[in-house]
Design brief:
Strand content of chain B: 15-25%
Structural class of chain A: alpha/beta
Keywords (chain B): DNA damage, DNA recombination, DNA repair
Bound molecules: zinc ion
InterPro entries (chain B): ARFGAP/RecO, DNA_rep/recomb_RecO_N, NA-bd_OB-fold, RecO, RecO_C
Shape of chain A: elongated
Largest sheet of chain A: 5 strands, mixed
Function (chain B): Involved in DNA repair and RecF pathway recombination.
CATH class of the largest domain in chain A: Alpha Beta
Number of helices of chain A: 8
Number of strands of chain A: 7
Family (chain B): Belongs to the RecO family.
Largest sheet of chain B: 5 strands, mixed, barrel
Radius of gyration of chain B: 22 Å
Oligomer: heterodimer
Distance between the termini of chain B: 77 Å
Number of strands of chain B: 7
CATH topology of the largest domain in chain A: Dna Topoisomerase Vi A Subunit, Chain: A, domain 2
Protein name (chain B): DNA repair protein RecO
């Protein structure tokens, strides 16, 4: 245990995902010895992200205005909607350059063991968007793991009766992996080879 | 470290829970055949280049090589998985059927809660859990029946199965009509506490059938009795657990299918057409 400010910083850093007590201590001492201008820039970036970034009111991607960049772009097709778990998945798919439709960010996957059910995700909002009738194909791009697959199963069950084509990214994405770690080529191929569910 | 031996040991296990750790690792909660419940780290499995990942998904029955001290104190160090082979990856089938996936989640969480102490062997719970996941994946019986049978027998192993063939208080044999969770199950008219439930006799028959493995009777039960039985089993389980199960309220008892069914027949089904179909 250290005193005052340095321990406070270690405690705060230790609450971040993937940062253990040892890493928290290492980062804290790095900050302590760093150039004051660098530290000020980091502090400003942290503050600004909470002040400026919010969720798109249409697709729940991160946005710096009412709507995100994709939703504001009139060239993006409204007929194809791609469902992902997190905003970082939007980034991964945008990197492939394969997709010209729009997104819907669920905010996670159905995981009963962690107490996350359909009502805890933005599924009601998704069904409302689909209800407007402009979407013809729904691409389920949830992670290729158990929770992602189960979420896709649930969504297919809910959406197919609405008369909308439902597709799933092709295999080639290894089971158990995170979508964000897939390279652009694999993810791009998965898009091209998507199959009906 | 004095007295600490790190060694390799092998066991087969069920994957109960998978949680992210750091950038690309996972912590896997396992129910092993011979070493009880334990948590082990699987390194690098979230990278899409990992061949391990698919085998360490929830509900799989796997053969493992683990590095760590099998008798080590809890928290002395996290064990790590050095090799894994799939025996039967039940998760693959379960994720394609939403009600079965939610029932499997409730089984996995229950198994974890029935083993409060890590590394305390519980062969019978392992066998019961393996049987429950296998039955769900096979799809021969309704998922809620498999779940309730698992919960009843799991409570039996824990020593708090509801009394079904004798009064829970005085032990008078027979099928008594009142059911009281605080009293411990069925109670005779003399022992019946205020507030005891009076389930349909067929509901108690179903519960007894599930507890004893009489699937012919269980499969024949109709849905109101299945629902009533599930409610009593859940209440009995929650009474004995310190905190409620997170997954149990999320178990899909067919409502998603029913909603879908209703949506498929939208807009309004003509009563005459429905009658024609029924003939
Ligand atoms: Zn948007
Ligand atoms: Zn009695």
């Amino acid at each position: 245990m250290y005193e005052g400010a340095i321990q406070d910083l270690i405690d705060e850093l230790g609450r971040l995902p993937g940062v253990g007590p040892k890493s928290a201590q290492r980062i804290a001492f790095h900050v302590l010895s760093a150039d004051p201008a660098d530290v000020t820039r980091l502090a400003t970036a942290l503050r600004r992200v909470k002040e400026l970034v919010r969720f798109c009111t249409v697709c729940y991607n991160v946005a710096e205005s009412e709507q995100c960049r994709v939703c504001r772009d009139p060239r993006r097709s409204e007929e194809v909607l791609c469902v992902v778990e997190e905003p970082k998945d939007v980034v991964a798919i945008e990197r492939t350059g394969e997709f010209r439709g729009r997104y819907h960010v669920l905010g996670g996957a159905i995981n009963p063991l962690e107490g996350v059910g359909p009502d805890n995700l933005r599924i009601r909002e998704l069904l409302a968007r689909l209800g407007t009738g402009s979407v013809r194909e729904l691409i389920l791009a949830t992670d290729p793991n158990t929770e992602g697959e189960a979420t896709a199963t649930y969504l297919a069950l809910m959406v197919k009766p609405m008369g909308i084509a439902v597709t799933r990214l092709a295999s080639g994405l290894p089971v158990g992996g995170d979508l964000e770690y897939a390279d652009e080529i694999t993810l791009g191929r998965a898009f091209e080879g998507r199959r009906a569910v | 470290m004095p007295g600490y031996r790190r060694q390799l040991y092998r066991d087969d296990a069920l994957v109960l829970r998978v949680q992210k750790l750091g950038e690309s690792d996972r912590i896997i909660t396992l129910l092993t055949r011979r070493h009880g419940r334990l948590r082990a780290v699987a390194r690098g499995v979230r990278r899409t280049t990992s061949r391990f990942g698919a085998r360490l998904e929830p509900f799989g029955h796997v053969d493992l090589q683990i590095a760590g001290d099998p008798k080590g104190e809890q928290g002395s160090s996290l064990h790590s998985i050095s090799q894994v082979e799939g025996i039967q990856l039940y998760g693959k089938a379960l994720v394609t059927d939403y009600p079965r996936y939610t029932a499997a989640s409730a089984i996995a969480e229950t198994a974890e809660r029935l083993t409060p102490v890590e590394r305390e062997p519980s062969l019978r719970l392992f066998q019961l859990t393996l049987g429950g996941l296998r039955a769900l994946a096979d799809g021969e019986h309704a998922s809620t029946l498999v779940l309730d049978a698992y919960l009843l027998r799991g409570m039996g192993l824990a020593g708090w199965a509801p009394a079904l063939v004798a009064c829970a208080v005085c032990g008078t044999p027979g099928r008594h009509g009142a059911f009281s969770v605080p009293a411990g199950g069925c109670v005779c008219p003399d022992c019946r506490p205020p507030g005891a439930a009076h389930p349909a006799p067929a509901t108690l028959d179903l519960m007894a059938a599930l507890a004893s493995g009489d699937w012919r009777t269980a499969d024949a039960a109709d849905s109101p009795h299945r629902r009533e039985c599930s409610g009593l089993v859940a209440a009995h389980l929650q009474w004995h657990l310190e905190r409620g199960l997170r997954s149990l309220p999320l178990v899909d008892r067919g409502s998603t299918g029913e909603r879908t069914e209703r949506a498929r027949h939208a807009p309004r089904p003509d009563p005459a057409d429905v009658a024609k179909e029924a003939q």
